[in-house]
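Would you mind writing out the residues of a protein together with its fold in token form for me to study?
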Amino acid sequence: MRLRFNIFNLFGVGVVAAFLAIVLVHSNLVESTEDAMERSSRFDVAWVGAGGRLEAYALQKSLARYAVTKSSSDAQQVQLFTDIVTGRFGIFASPTFEEFLDSKASRRDRLAEAQVRFERMVPELRSIEEVSDKRISVLISEFETVLRAIDRVGAEAHSESVNHADAIRRELHEKQSLQKWLATTLFVLIALLLGLAAIQNYFLGRAGKRAMRAARDFSYLAHHDNLTGLPNRMAFNVEFEKVVERLRRPGAGRVAVFAVDLDEFKAVNDRYGHATGDALLKQATLRMSQTCATFENSIMTARLGGDEFVVMMSVPDDDVGAILDQAEALRKALSVPYDIDGTTLAVNASVGVEISAPDRDPSNLLIGADIALSQAKASGKNRVLLFNPSMHDAFIRQALIQSELDNAIENDEITPHYQIKVDVGTGRVVGAEVLARWTHPTLGPVSPAEFTKIAEQSGQIVPLGRKVLEKACRDALSFPWEMGIAVNLSVVQFVRDDLVRTVREVLDETGFPAHRLTLEVTESLMISETDRAVEILSQFRKMGISVALDDFGTGYSALSYLRTFEWDELKIDRSFVKELETDERAGSIVGSIVSMAHQLGIKVTAEGAETPRQIEILRDAGSDTIQGYHFGRPVPFSVFPAAVLQAVAAAARLERHRVPHQSANLSGKVARLH
């Protein structure tokens, strides 16, 4: 036995020596192959020669065209390509190209003669407009000689470069063939070494143990998310199939599935980077795991991908209310602000809940939870929503709208409508708010609140916003010069870095004056993106664009927003205007808002005015402009002129009712507007 092992040892030493020899040879081959690859990737003289030929032909073409047209633009082309060809002779002097020229004496002489001839022509070419027709003909003839020399050298450079590349390819092919042979030999030697190891029972036992550990590790990695450590989609599917099979048996009880999603997670990734997004997911996972650990009926918590999580729970005693309470507890835990590397992130969560029922297929539990989650996000986010069968139709509708939104944007099916703003002091129409409208071929009119939410969730709000802004600017060019337009911006647009550039490009492309454009933002934007919003809005004001704070008073109001930024306009939310005739407190609040805004130098617009009495109260409170159905609903561009006349007439009627003896003066104002 000892002799046998000595023989195996000697054989093993021989195999190892052969292995090392092959490794050394292979390393040398790799080095020489890399050298060949480096030589093949060096500066190719063919590009230099080809560039010279193209530029010389361009100069000849420009010179010939100028001889015919005598136009200043053609003269500029001659001067431009004269400078380019002059620069090309400088490139010809590069070490690599000179090496190519020196490989054949006639090349350098031919190119040098062409350069001397061309340099004599340069002064006249650069002042071609001062050269006589006769002299131009001579220059064209002389340049033919220069062109032939450059063309000849460029063609030879191309031919020689191709031959050089072919030689390198052959060399690489030979080295690669040898490398393949060495690799094959190497694999044979490795197999021999493995065979020797297999004879050793001791080593075989150790290898078996290592293999078992590796298999366990692989199984864990295959069924767990590598970022959060939670079970992944594969593990969830395995457990879910078991639960579904159990639910199909009589008396199996009920199971609930939570579909959990972090609101605005994509915005965090876009704004702060994926490293911050990953850290956020880890903290959210920890909170989710800790919260679910307190639920005695918890079955599994898994991450399906991105910020999508799923929780399975049994439903004890058929208590649906208790399940919804647990879902709400989970949502609250996930909605507490996160501290990541010193940055506080206010990220909420939405939860869709589906609970199994005897009359529904349990295999659709996850689908139902996903639909409920989608509805929760579509209806405002940061909430828990229980699935019911009626949601399925809404989900199909949402999916249809999202799938066709791109085509609707591309084909201009979503068009801007314009709602008039009236100056209450003069009765003049001073502008209009731009509102997107979409009439779907089969669904009919789609609410802006519906398709804009879907566009924000899918990121389609960015191309939609640009299209609406561009179309509105082109339309408004035909409005009277004193009329401006107001366009709304969403939080999703502010997350991107190209918002200012997009607005500037639209103004440049359409020619619409910046001072006639107002951009409206909501207080929710100022809450979530205060510093960024102030920075971007300040850039808009430097461009001459006005900025308005929209929906003021909807529940987020804070006077600090008015102090943080110099607003041009403040828009009072329609909820206050609606209650002006029935609630004296609403009138007091409106009056206070107007007074405060005027003291800060901010104009005030009231939205949603529908009755003469509301308008009278707003006018007495000092509101500068009013927007509402009384003066007109949002209308397409084609009927906007008629809508303006109707609004002026409505304002005139209000004025006559208020001060009868001023009717003649107001009629004069209407006539001037016409």
Summary: The longest helix spans residues 133-199. Confidence is low (pLDDT under 50) at residues 660-674.
